[in-house]
Amino acid sequence: MIILGIDPGIANTGYGVVASQANRATAHDYGNIRTNAQTASETRLKQIHDEVARLITEFAIDAVALEEIFFSRNVSSALVVGEVTGIVKLAAANAGCPVATYTPSQVKQAVVGYGQAKKTQMQRMVQALLRLREAPRPDHAADALAVALCHARSYKGLELRERYQ
Question: Are 135 and 123 in contact (CB under 8 A)?
Fold first, then answer.
C-alpha cells in the first residue's frame, strides 16, 4: 500500500509518500509545498491542490492520511488550514483515494509510542523506521511522513493493506 501523508498548512504543506508492506515501510518521497503569502488565497489553494493531485498520480497513491490540526486560539488559522484540508480531500476524492485523519497525539502514539512526544523524538523515530540517512527536513515533511506511518500502523491502514497484498 502506498500512502500519502499530509501536514496541512497554507504557507507550507508537508507531504510524505510511504510504501507499507507487512511490517516494513519505506519513504518514496517527501517535501514541502510552499506558497507565497503575497498570492491570493484561492491561487495558493489551487497550487496545493494541483501538487497533491500530481503526487497522487505520480506515486499511484492508495490512501491519503491527514494530520487533524487543533487551534484553540487563532480561529483564522484554523479556517485556512480547514480550507487546505478540504482541497486535499478533494484531490483524493477525485482520484478515488480513501482519506483518514489523525490527531497529533494519535500520530505520536503510533510512531513513538507516547502521545506527548517531542518533535525531535518524532523526527528520530521517523528516520529510524524509514531507515533514512538523516532526519527528514523540513519539519512539515517529517510530520507528513509520521502521519503516513501512523496510517500504515492503524486499523484503517491495516484494512486497506489487506486489499493490496
Answer: yes
Q: Which of 64, 122, 104 is nearest to 88 (CA)?
A: 64
Angle of helix 104-111 versus helix 139-153 axis, rounded to 10: 70
User: How many C-beta neighbours within 10 Å does residue 107 have?
Assistant: 28
2 has a pLDDT exceeding 70: yes
Sorted by sequence, the CB contacts under 8 Å of residue 72 that are 6+ apart come out as none
Continuous H helices in the chain: 41-58, 75-94, 104-111, 119-129, 139-153, 155-163
With contact defined as beta carbons under 8 Å apart, do 108 and 115 qualify? yes
Give the separation between CA 18 and CA 127, rounded to whole angstroms.
12
Cα–Cα distance measured from residue 165 to residue 52, given in angstroms and rounded to the nearest whole number: 25
Q: Quote the pTM value.
A: 0.91
Cβ 87 vs Cβ 11: under 8 Å: no
What's the chain's average pLDDT? 90
Lowest mean pLDDT among 90-94, 100-104, 136-140, 156-160: 156-160
C-alpha cell recorded at residue 86? 478540504
